[in-house]
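Posting for a labmate who doesn't have an account.
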Amino acid sequence: MITVEYKKVIFVSEENTYTSPIAEAIMKAAVNDAIEAESCGTVVLFPEPANPKGVTIAKSRGINLEKHRAKPVREDMFGEDILILVMTEKIKAFLYDEYKNAVNVYTIKEFVDLRGDVETPYGKGLKEYGEVYTQIEELIEKVINKLESN
């Protein structure tokens, strides 16, 4: 059971078409609504669907991203009881620079005491999309463990 100081976790990537929606979906499947999960992007101009390769990989792992539509970060997404997990240091810096209410923003790896970024495998093959999926799945498990231990 998750006993959380956060009521929601928001995953943020640039386009919100693969890494952050994957993280959101894996988190939702793992916690069964014990904590709300959402995703958004920093560079979203319209409600674009999930990346087709990402949809294929997710489907092969039992996750349906076919209805996902990208949405942008909004000022009202920040709060003391909201955890923002971003995919890269660049996104973390952007959120703190652009949003005056930005708080509790960590890279997903930083939050679980690791280093580095989770990069979107745009332009690469299904193998690379699968590798990133597995990486995010492992990170979400660590995130959940950390939230449970707090």
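Reply:
Got it, the structure tokens are right above this. The helical segments are 19-31, 52-60, 89-98, 108-111, 126-149.
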